[in-house]
Amino acid sequence: MQQERRKTGAKTIGVYGIQGPRVGALGLAVALSAALVLPGTGPVLAQDIQSLGAFGDWRAYAYDEKGEKACYIASQPKKDEGDYKRRGEIYAMVTHRPADKVRDEVSLAAGYRYKSQTRVEVSIDGKTFELLPHEDTAWVPDSAGDRKLVAAMRAGRQMVVEGTSSRGTATKDTYSLIGFTKAYRAASKACGY
Questions:
Q1: Of 73, 71, 79, 78, nearest to 92 (Cα)?
Q2: C-alpha to C-alpha distance for 189 and 42, rounded to whole angstroms
Q3: For the segment 36-92, what is each residue's pLDDT rounded down to a tens digit?
Q4: How do the domains of the chain map onto residue ranges?
Q5: What pTM did the predictor assign?
Q6: Average pLDDT score over residue span 178-183
Q7: Which pLDDT tens digit goes with each residue over 152-166?
């Protein structure tokens, strides 16, 4: 069951996920805009994040990171399944950081700590990708894999993410890819790609 979060001041999106209760689509924009912390950076406050728009089930944002432009798109699953009582934030992000030569970096936050020595499986319209979990986020092993996954997301209609929590709970999250390509184009344009 989804809970709406009210904005009560700057929240922090940790390196590996949004902190706090689960939010709906509108809440995602508030949560992602409140504050952002990415690897190798300090916090980015809400006033520094510019919404580039909502595109179907995806949203695009840009912000300045140490004087350099960075951009990301994000969405939450339409359906999350698993035998659990409580689960944190679940979302998918694709990030561009041109100053660091980072493009199409995919991260999938599970809302729980992944079981060690496991893989996270992503399926998009019959194509399967294996991601590596680190704490509560799954990452593609390399930038070539990121580009392949993003290409599949741009061409696909639905993405299914399956993983296993540290407690052994199997989960399955289903994302709509409606609007992904338009959000991706907006973020790419804002970051000069």
A1: 73
A2: 24
A3: 444 444 445 555 899 999 999 999 999 998 889 999 999 999 999 999 888 999 999
A4: 55-190
A5: 0.78
A6: 98
A7: 999 999 999 999 999
Starting from the edge strand earliest in sequence, which strands make up the sheet with 158-164, in order?
A: 49-55, 58-65, 68-75, 91-97, 102-109, 137-139, 127-134, 120-124, 158-164, 170-176, 79-82
CA–CA dist 29, 184 (Å, integer): 16
Token pair recorded at residue 136: 């509560």
Is 55-190 a CATH 3.40.50.1950 domain? no
**Residues 44/35, Cβ–Cβ less than 8 Å:** yes
Number of H helices, E strands in the chain: 3, 15
Kindly give the interhelix angle for 143-155 and 180-190, rounded to the nearest 10 degrees: 130
